[in-house]
Amino acid sequence: MFLIVSGGDAPDPAFLQARAEKARMIIAADRGAGYCLRAGVRPDIVVGDMDSISPAALREVERSGIPFIQHSPEKDKTDTQLALDIALDRGASCIEMVACTGDRFDHSLANVHLLYAALKAGVDAAITAPSHRIFLVDSDAGIDGMKGAVLSLLPLSLEVRGVSLSGFQWPLEDAVMEVGNPYGISNRIISEQARIRVREGVLVAVLFPPEAAGGKQHVTEPAPEC
After folding, report:
1. Same domain? 18 vs 104
2. pTM of the full structure
3. Which of 14, 50, 64, 179 is the most buried (most CB within 10 A)?
4. pLDDT over threshold 60, residue 226
5. Claim to verify: residue 51 and residue 156 sit in the same structural domain
6. Does 62 lie in the same domain as 36?
7. Where is the Thiamin pyrophosphokinase thiamin-binding domain positioned along the sequence (predicted)?
């Protein structure tokens, strides 16, 4: 797994450490380098225009000899997109992205779009946070061992056809989901094995594991793993 640490809401250090332990490569995007250092995680590479990393964190990156690629702020890609490009160029088959949501809704939404860029490249990718996991579904997806979890499904394509859900409180069979009709919010998994099927189009899935769905906001192992 390749781990991208972005510059959204600061992740819990224990959560970041747990994800880093599973990573083959850690790519920090700008301020994400500071999050890594604070958690005692050494990124393999830092990329971005360095406009949000603290001066102290940047000095530590330079002192530690961590490779970093600095871009001009006048660029056509976000820092997280630059990090994704590195992961794809280096042959990633599975990518987790943390610190990708927060009070900058535009960046949060852009990062969901980056999941689509990974999907088009044939790479499994997910945005992971202590309380939820965001991933895309364009064919079949199984969720095992998550009884009690809450799952929201929203169309990323204008129209998603052939949507079928099994193992959910509100199942579907060959349904259509359209932008502007968000009826897929807050479904609940009621089986140890749940399945999502899509015939045409792409869904955004937001999974809240049972602990988070019950009000606990620190989940170190959100599932499914990519």
Report:
1. yes
2. 0.90
3. 50
4. no
5. no
6. yes
7. 142-204
